[in-house]
């Protein structure tokens, strides 16, 4: 790869474009297996600089708190509880501004490199309320001035907390964040969530909101409460990886890691490169080893009282997050890993000997049980009802996904730029301004190859002929990229770019029947073995629904052996709906 430019396609583009969809996928997948996405080296340098700015910026802002000290005296004050509180506020603010996960080129953001505030402070952009038919005053999909002011209120309350002096608290030299300020932030964030689920989840409230809520309780409850939240985050994520999907995530991620330049190692990630691009035993072993660590180290941390064993577990957990960060996964949740590393040092390194018995407030215990135990359990059994973020299925590979299909020559995709209020062009237009249109189309298809290499990508490809009569007559686009450009954020949650977004887009663009189709594939409910799908036409609504078996997905090649013969269980087609359904 070059420093500023991606490597050229490993084949002749003009010839490649003449081939059928599945045939085009095959060389892209095989190229990813050895070369990953092919991001220029400057991209990784840019993210590294961003991490340094994030970390040093947090420490500098926190050091301004009266009662702490300068950065040169950090060794004397980093263990103050208000430091942990302010680091949580800083990270929440960073994320909801759009500077964190889902930003910059590894998330296909080029011009501008972020979404977030550029959208959510702008009236007229699209918003997606979670329960518009149930919660009064939340209907509609247009962001109003009031919505922008509500979002600005969340930013202002977070900035207030970062600038706040510590309130008096016995035993705390620098005090605590004012509970009323925390309550205002959480209250405004909750109201924002009722109006727009995208900006709400963009703040990562399941992590930072829960951490801050602990500050509403007595100080002597804090450390152990925070410890349990960390442990449940780790265990929730680890539990979600006990599936057939996770090895696919690991093989794709390691093959794309910037430090992995070994062609030999990359070949070993696949069963028989280049013809069998399913995860190898090595990739599966690495995946399972990581899951064991995510269960084991936290168990030791919560049960040990510092000492040698506790120190080893702290080091093990830090290395776990350093490893994830070094992979630079495409969603780039890098700041979250930095926060978890700091929290591990703070909660288990310095305060690892605090007795678990100090947590005895029934209301706080109930809050942690609700947000960190019950919600993830329900979310894993009913993924259609609860986002994968509060369900703690971050890296599991068991994600809801969508694929959008635009009829070529209809001008449908161009309407997303001309008819929808947003500060960014569609991805192809962004990339074309940096490189050229040919490379832009190649990179978009490389994104489709990335999706195809995951288990659920096989199902999305297998459902294409169920969505349209002629696959070659449509341009396929990743739903996440649609959400990035239209909603201003996405982090693997297809509930942002499914039927609700399609309706909002149709309201503005007025597509003709057949111009735009969307395949939505829900996550696998815990141990169900099947994933439910729906196919929609922008103009006419639901065309078909049914399910696919996970076993069929994990046993096929990303390009489906260049055949549309993929097993699908069709549950129904509304009268007058549907399209060609070959292979049903």
Give an overview of the whole structure.
This protein has 584 residues and is of the alpha+beta class. It has helices at 13-17, 21-35, 41-63, 74-77, 81-96, 117-120, 145-163, 179-195, 197-202, 205-213, 222-240, 246-256, 263-268, 281-303, 307-327, 334-350, 362-381, 412-418, 427-434, 437-452, 455-462, 464-467, 479-487, 499-509, 550-554; strands at 270-272, 276-279, 401-407, 474-478, 516-521, 530-537, 541-549, 569-572. The two termini are 42 Å apart.
Task: Present the secondary structure layout.
Layout lengths: L12 H5 L3 H15 L5 H23 L10 H4 L3 H16 L20 H4 L24 H19 L15 H17 L1 H6 L2 H9 L8 H19 L5 H11 L6 H6 L1 E3 L3 E4 L1 H23 L3 H21 L6 H17 L11 H20 L19 E7 L4 H7 L8 H8 L2 H16 L2 H8 L1 H4 L6 E5 H9 L11 H11 L6 E6 L8 E8 L3 E9 H5 L14 E4 L12
Antiparallel strand pairs: 1-2, 3-4, 3-5, 5-6, 6-7, 7-8
Q: What is the rounded distance between the termini?
A: 42 Å
Instruction: Indicate the low-confidence ranges by residue numbers.
Output: 580-584
Helix content: 40-55%
- Strand share of the residues? 5-15%
Radius of gyration: 24 Å
Number of DSSP E strands: 8
The profile of the biggest β sheet is: 6 strands, antiparallel
Compact summary:
52% of the residues lie in helices and 8% in strands.
């Amino acid at each position: 790869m070059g420093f500023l430019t991606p490597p050229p396609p490993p084949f002749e583009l003009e010839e490649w474009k003449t081939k059928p969809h599945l045939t085009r996928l095959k060389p892209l997948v095989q190229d990813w297996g050895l070369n990953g996405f092919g991001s220029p080296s400057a991209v990784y340098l840019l993210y590294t600089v961003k991490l340094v700015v994030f970390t040093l910026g947090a420490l500098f802002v926190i050091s301004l708190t009266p009662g702490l000290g300068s950065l040169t005296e950090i060794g004397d004050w980093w263990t103050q509880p208000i430091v942990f509180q302010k680091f949580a506020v800083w990270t929440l603010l960073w994320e909801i501004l759009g500077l964190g996960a889902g930003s910059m080129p590894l998330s296909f953001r080029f011009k501008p490199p972020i979404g977030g505030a550029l959208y959510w402070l702008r009236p007229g952009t699209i918003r997606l309320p979670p329960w518009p038919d149930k919660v009064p005053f939340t209907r509609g999909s247009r962001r109003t001035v009031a919505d922008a002011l509500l979002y600005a209120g969340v930013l202002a309350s977070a900035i207030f907390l970062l600038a706040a002096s510590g309130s008096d608290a016995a035993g705390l030299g620098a005090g605590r964040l004012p509970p009323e300020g925390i309550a205002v932030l959480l209250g405004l964030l909750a109201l924002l969530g009722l109006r727009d689920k995208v900006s709400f989840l963009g703040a990562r409230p399941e992590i930072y909101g829960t951490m801050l809520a602990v500050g509403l309780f007595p100080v002597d409850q804090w450390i152990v409460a925070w410890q349990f939240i960390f442990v449940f985050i780790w265990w929730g994520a680890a539990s979600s990886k006990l599936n057939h999907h996770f090895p696919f995530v690991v093989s794709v991620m390691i093959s794309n890691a910037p430090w992995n330049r070994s062609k030999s190692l990359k070949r070993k990630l696949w069963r028989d490169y280049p013809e069998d691009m399913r995860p190898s035993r090595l990739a599966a072993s690495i995946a399972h080893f990581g899951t064991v660590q995510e269960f084991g180290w936290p168990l030791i941390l919560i049960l040990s009282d510092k000492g040698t064993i506790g120190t080893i577990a702290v080091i093990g957990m830090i290395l776990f997050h350093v490893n994830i960060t070094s992979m630079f996964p495409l969603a780039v949740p890098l700041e979250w890993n930095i926060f978890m590393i700091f929290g591990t040092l703070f909660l288990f390194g310095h305060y690892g000997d605090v007795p678990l018995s100090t947590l005895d407030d029934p209301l706080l215990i109930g809050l942690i049980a609700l947000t960190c135990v019950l919600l993830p359990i329900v979310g894993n059994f009913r993924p259609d009802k609860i986002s994968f973020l509060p369900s703690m299925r971050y890296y599991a590979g068991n994600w809801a996904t969508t694929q959008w299909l635009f009829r070529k020559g209809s001008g449908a995709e161009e309407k997303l730029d001309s008819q929808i209020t947003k500060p960014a062009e569609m991805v192809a237009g962004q990339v074309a301004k940096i490189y050229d249109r040919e490379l832009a189309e190649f990179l978009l298809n490389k994104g489709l190859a990335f999706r195809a290499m995951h288990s659920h990508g096989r199902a999305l490809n297998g459902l294409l002929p169920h969505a349209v009569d002629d696959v070659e007559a449509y341009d396929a686009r990743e739903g996440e990229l649609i959400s990035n450009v239209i909603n201003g954020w996405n982090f693997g949650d297809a509930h942002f770019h499914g039927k609700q977004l399609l309706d909002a887009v149709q309201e503005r663009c007025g597509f003709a029947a057949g111009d735009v189709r969307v395949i939505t594939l829900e996550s696998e409910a815990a141990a169900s073995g099947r994933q439910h799908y729906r196919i929609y036409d922008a103009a006419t609504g639901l065309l078909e629904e049914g399910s696919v078996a996970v076993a069929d997905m994990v046993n096929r090649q990303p390009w489906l052996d260049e055949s549309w013969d993929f097993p699908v269980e069709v549950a129904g087609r509304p009268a007058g709906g549907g399209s060609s359904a070959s292979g049903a």
